[in-house]
């Protein structure tokens, strides 16, 4: 009985660790996306055109994953 309880506690800890890890990864991706959008918005329309983007593309494109 003690072994079963200990095994279940380990599974719960692993699940929480996984959830926290996913949250950290998602938050990091969101921050990177925000920083990239901020930098792209600083570019002129001509510079954006040179790299094949328009202002409308910046807000609609997925910049992560």
Helix and strand topology:
Blueprint lengths: L1 H41 L2 H6 L4 H6 L5
Can you offer a commentary on this structure?
With 65 residues, the protein is an all-alpha fold. It has one domain. Helices cover 82% and strands 0% of the residues. It is built from 3 helices and no strands. The longest helix has 41 residues. The termini are far apart. The model has no long low-confidence stretch (mean pLDDT 83).
List keywords for this structure.
65 residues; mainly alpha; 82% helix; rod-shaped
* Structural class by SSE content: mainly alpha
- The residue-averaged pLDDT reads 83
The residue ranges in which pLDDT falls below 50 over 5 or more consecutive positions are none
How many helices? The count is 3
The helical percent reads over 70%
Tell me the major beta sheet: none
**Roughly what fraction of the amino acids lie in strands?**
under 5%
Task: Find the count of extended strands (DSSP E, 2+ residues).
Answer: 0
Distance between the termini: 44 Å
List the helices and strands in order: HHH
Radius of gyration: 21 Å
